[in-house]
Amino acid sequence: MSNYAGHCLCGAVTYSAKGEPHMHVCHCSNCTRWSGGPFIGMRFDGGVAITNPEGVNWYASSEWAERGSCKACGSAIFYRFHQDPSQMIVSATSLSQPPAIAITEHIFIDEKPAYYDFTGDASRVTGAEVFARFQSSQS
Question: What angle do CA 16, 72, 36 make, to 5 degrees?
Answer without folding.
Answer: 80
